[in-house]
Specification:
The chain contains 21 helices and 21 strands. The protein is an alpha/beta fold.
Amino acid sequence: MAWIAGVDGCKAGWIAALVDTAAQEPPSLRVVSKLADLFAGEDPPTILAVDMPIGLPDRVSGAGRGPERLVRPLLGERQSSVFSIPARSAVYCADYREACRLALETSEPPRKVSKQGFHLFPRIREIDTLLRTEPTLRERIFEVHPELAFRTMRGAPLTQPKKIKGVINPLGMAERRALLIAAGLPAAIVEARPPKGAGADDALDALAALVVAQHILAGRGAPFPDPPGRDSHGLPIAIWSFAPARCPSPKDLPTQDTVMTDRPVPRPMIEAAADRIAGHARVTPVMRLGAGAFGSPAAISLKLECLQHAGSFKTRGAFNNLLSLPVPAAGVAAASGGNHGAAVAYAARERGVKATIFVPEISPAAKIEAIRRFGAEVVIGGAQYDDAQAACDRFVAETGALKIHPFAAKETIAGQGTLGREWQLQEPDLDTVLVAVGGGGLISGIAAWFAGSKVKVVGVEPAGSRALQAALEAKGPVEVKVASVAADSLGARNVGPLVYEVCKDAVDHVALVPDEAITQAQGTLWRDFRLAVEPGGAAALGALLCGAYKPAPGERLGVLVCGANVDLGKLGALVG
């Protein structure tokens, strides 16, 4: 026999969903008082997936262990179901007040222990002790999180919680039962009454863990992080899910655009993206200029994101998509005025993935050449960006390729938000940041990061391309006409609902700049700093030069320089 099991804690101890993979028998549910009981006898499980933390930190920084930070952003509104595990000393403390004291001493920022988390400590200690005393089990026991398993089965965050204020939610239970049945478990076991000592929600969580165990056995296990880390005792630290045997087609699952229009992107999602893309995207420098620069009374910090791989900030969002979503055999596809396409092409090449990029006829030859140089297939067609997006959508529907949207996707916005996080680490005293706006993915990410802080986020749009300002005025996304020297990168006709939902409360206002100010900024950046910057990348500085944004004396102002994919011939003609 070859037993595998999915396990969850319950009132009586542990509930296990077990199946013999060598037989044709359906899974069974069993309650044991001690986890070690499952390994007693001559034929213990070869794989056990358990909903309980494995591997304890000696100190905690940020929002918890790496696995928690990576998993939370995937769960939508149920992020709070992933607890921040305190340090080992707190977990091994039996007194709640003392556990809180130890947790505060060993966490940065200081964090207490929740009563709900403290209730789990005996079971966490049980599994920790078992793995420390039985090293052979370390390669057979895997930490899982049921909500992540259900999210993986569905391909998107769940729509209903299991419980509402501690009471079972029938809609949430029905949603999870349907996913387990769709994953191949018999309806009889999914709908069965749980054994004595376990609740119905415990049983469903154990069955979800069993699904993950089945995939791990088949070689499709996916750890967060990959590869797993180790604690100071050598125990693995990772939450496991799986890569589906086949990637869902677009008609099977909600699109990225739809999935994330319900709520803004939270900071933990950006923190997880920063962890994910570390080593793939550059940390770009800042240039500090004192008061008087550009005739301004403010102290200026230029964030030189124009030095990013592929020439723009979009590399961040591209890598976050490729590193957090399953990529089908058809590869990835994107619509772009040029920069997004170059970034996706670069990230795809680095990850060994096929990329197809759709660009409008207005895209500069320099940007199209960059996309091709990074190895992507380029399809040119349509007068504006939105025409290229429509062609991309048709291609995705026909081939099943993964669409990487430049702004209407949580993965993209979270990736761009890492720029705001990085800027704040470099310049913690900023009062205001000026950010150019096209489709709004960049300003959404930066505004999501700074939301609730003292930093004021100001958007900068060309006067002839004002999709975000129009949306904020209309209290919802609207179509605008586009006519600007920066239309290839700042030329979206509609920011879409996700960008609007993030920006409506987190962006202070939008400043409009004429094309003359944008080209003046290009010339200034080249003549004074030898920075070759495209029109869209210079737009934020243009707002300062023309007075569209007027800083106060003593203000600490950040100005984002965000794109370097410029036609050098045109730049040369501009600066004379």
